[in-house]
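go over this record:
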Amino acid sequence: MRWCVQDRHDSDEALVVMAQAGDAAAEERLLNRYKSAVRARARKFFLAGGETDDLVQEGMIGLFAAVHAFRADGGKSFKNFAYLCVSRRIYSALRTAERQVESGGVDPESIPGANTPEGLLLEEEALAELRRRLMRVLTDLEFRVFSLWLDGASYADISRATGKPMKSIDNALARSRKKLQTALPEERNKENA
């Protein structure tokens, strides 16, 4: 399956602008538009100790980050940027799984084009922008919990890393998600003002 999407009533870039301005319906349309492409991308890999759905979830996190970090003035299409963010997120999950499982697995470093200078730069810029926005709207605990969760840590792992009970971790993630749904579009509006 090619990295393509259906439902072309609005361009990807137009939906991104609307999503970054706080239009939850536009964000949902964009995420749904790319969901099958993310699934197709995730199915190409094997996650030692995991399932394809785990990689799909990682890919969707990458897609969400792409929606909020995309800059049209960079000269790249959203489709290419989203593909890069989704792929990077999946590769990151694979690397994490490899470190946790001693028996090899897929080596994302051996995938052609995975480490191009342009790809690495775009990923670093997108992640830096997302991290900056997260730090503006989340408390220190929420930021740490959300960051660990994005990196693929389980609730138990996050609980051990923060010294907080799992219920607190669940609550921090719920608060983070709620804040991010409203705050990221507001941050984007401030920057454009």
